[in-house]
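Tutorial, part two.
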Amino acid sequence: MASCMLLIWIPINTKAMKLTLKHITLSALSAISAFSFAGNPERQGQAGAAQLTINGWARSSGLGYAAGGLITGAEAMYMNVAGLDRMKNRTELVFARTEWLMGSGIGINNLGLAIKLGEDGDAGSLGVQVMQFGIDPIEITTVENPHGGIGTYRVNMTNIGVSYSKSFSNSISAGLTARLVSEGIPDVSASGMALDAGVQYTTTLIPKVGSMKRNDFKFGVSVRNIGPDLRFDGDGLSYKALIQNGDYDKTMQVKTDVVKLPAMLNIAASYDLRLDKVKGVYDNRLTVGFGFTNHSFSANQTTVSAEYAYKDMISVRAGYCYQEGIFSEDTRTSAFTGPFAGLSYDWNVDDDNVVSLDYSYRATNPFSGVHSFGIRIGLGSAE
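Running the prediction step on this input gives:
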């Protein structure tokens, strides 16, 4: 795998530590050019812990990998942990249910909890995320019973992450996640540790006196799934063999090769457009987004997205994720065909508390797509 170094220059001064558009553009272009040839489509399917590449959240999956710069709160623990401390509430609880590849019998449950630390919430944010796969039982077959009938087994896949994020100014935040990952079947399993890290930057791109637009440009960089190799082990890898020229059996253990984690790097940016023409009114927002994702075990992905929001209460979003070979069934390396969409309803119970309902859809072939449903509860204002 090609190795590269990403350099992002952040000038530090006493004037709010602002990055200019020139600096951001040069950083993004440098990173994209450095990683644009680093994808490894020939290694598709060779990584372990593929569950770490799955976004089971309902809101962020409706924006794809373009959400890396703007995602906030508990869902940021998957896409870019730097956004964890940018949530608008003191406490946030999120639950999501994903029907993965509808018709495959795979369901994913996600639970996330995020809490602002410190009396004024200025000590950063701590978050915990649990992702658990529910897979229909699989029939046990053997040489003697090729058609089953002797029982079933289940595949177990779970990962648990603990995150911390801190805003260093109104513009810059960073975060780190330590994640325990486990997967296997009853008699063969593997477990390990993965680390994620991310940075987000937000600013007003073209400040104007009296303008209602604030923090309309968002930029994020994250690296995910960095950690030691996994190795599967267990009684299921042992067997009895008759020793040659002998009259006794001996239990033999199959030693498996190690598998690497599916490391990835994501660069994302977004810009808010105010659609209202009436002075003093900002009810209609259109956000356009872009994302570039480098995968260590598959082809790189380029994502474009758009989100329309009315009074930040009703949001509709859609986009497309391009990957080399995606237009043909003969060359496409996954079930995903590119399009995705989603919607949200945010109900402000009062000035401090909010309840949100989210849904997203990702198109696939075969199967009937990926459907995610989520509910978010925000308690106490952090603003």
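Residues 1-38 have pLDDT under 50 and may be disordered. In part three we will examine how such features are distributed along the chain.
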